[in-house]
Amino acid sequence: MSRTAFTNARLIDPASGYDEKGGLLVEDGLIADLGPQLFNDGLPDGVEIVDCGGHVLAPGLIDCRVFTGEPGAEYRETLALASQAAAAGGVTTMIVMPNTNPVIDDVALVDYIERRARDTAIVNVHTMAALTKGLHGEQMTEIGLLRDAGAVAFTDGDKALASAQVMRRAMTYAAHFGALVVQHAEEPSLSGGVMNESELATRLGLTGIPAVAETIVIERDLRLLEIAGGRYHVAQISCEASVEIIRRARRHGLPVTCGVSAAHLQLNENDVQSYRTFFKLSPPLRSEADRRALVEGLADGTIDVVVSSHDPQDAEVKRRPFAEANFGAIGLETLLPAGLALVHAGDISLARLLAALTHAPSDLLGLGRGRLAAGLPADLVLIDTDTPWVLDPAKLKSISKNTPFEDRRFQGRAIRTMVGGRTVYVHGEDAGR
């Protein structure tokens, strides 16, 4: 029997509101017990002891929007390398998108990802399968079969499903299986630009993407949801108007949820002024007023989950003029630090941040994780919330280095990550399977 005792910890379980100093015992990959009095009578024999030094011990983070290069573009990033980056960021479960080559739109490909993850990844990996075949937006996939194969949700990833008819059919069909439909809300005919449509874009000589490109898709899909039923999730929102639309829909009882990226919570369109392509994201970074509205939406629960939207891009497609470069930035290793910056600024509580990174995505996708409770898998992250540090891209685990947080000063990070009772990362050490 393998045993690990975490002592002298601040235990936080955002799902239950539990926040106490104490200890936690892991036995054979599961949480055996936890509490303030756990080790008062001494430690059990043959146990590995981890003195947490008063740091926060929380459920491992769940990132439900991760793009990788496997299969088809392993030069950008493999599942193995992405999982190492995830572990370094305190992420114990990552949900990968279907935008690969070939597209994950077939049962055999869902099975392939599951098998590759078991063989090479050091964190839990689940798949969102394609909503339409080939991501072409024309014919929906076999949602029932893909769900049985292990797909946790259905999306066309970074492509919006533009056809209202196909979306209605997909919602109706998915509703029969209780499957979650996930939309990248960006109307293609309005999204030919490269940054937020604004006065700044005009001054920079860059074509803009208006906020209405996002809101028009959400408004349409919510109308379809009213007649089709089912469950609907907006992968990322980026503007104040979208927050208000989601808030209003919730008041009317619609089963809609949404996410936001850590980058959109920390950055705005002014960061694009340097023409640095690592700030070229989809959806684009918008105004400071929009950013503030996103933070407020997260704080009051309108926004359910925070994602990294991790999207590794190699130098060949990023070292180009801004208008020609690919969209996307990596984010697995900065997801937690970027969130902690909001906590230190007093914008949200630590418990609220951790809720959006743990049990909320778990509940959304039916993973049965994201909690500190006896009998659950020991997916844990030890967090130093206070120590300042500067991000050096050269030290990131990701093979691609396209981070918008280069040389950013952060305060707090993951210092130990455990997946299924196995330590997969210790800050300052090489830890693996």
Give a topology summary.
Elements (H helix, E strand, L loop, with lengths): L2 E11 L4 E10 L2 E6 L12 E4 L4 E4 L1 E6 L12 H10 L2 E6 L10 H14 L3 E7 L12 H7 L3 E3 L8 H14 L2 E4 L11 E2 L2 H6 L3 E2 L2 H17 L2 E4 L5 H12 L4 E6 H5 L21 H12 L5 E3 L7 H4 L16 H10 L5 H8 L1 H7 L14 E11 L18 E11 L2 E5 L7
Parallel strand pairs: 1-4, 1-5, 6-7, 7-8, 8-9, 9-10, 10-13, 11-12, 13-14, 14-15
Antiparallel strand pairs: 1-2, 2-3, 5-16, 16-17, 17-18
Q: What would the CATH topology be?
A: TIM Barrel
Radius of gyration: 21 Å
Distance between the termini: 17 Å
Uncertain regions spanning at least 5 consecutive residues: none
Work out the count of structural domains: 1
Tell me the β content.
15-25%
Rounded average pLDDT: 96
Category from helices, strands and their pairing: alpha/beta
Any idea what the shape is?
A: globular
Level-2 CATH architecture: Alpha-Beta Barrel
For the biggest sheet, the summary is:
8 strands, mixed
Q: How many helices in DSSP terms? A: 13
> Could you state the CATH homologous superfamily?
Metal-dependent hydrolases
Helix share, percent: 25-40%
Query: How many beta-strand segments?
Result: 18
Q: Which CATH C-level class is it?
A: Alpha Beta
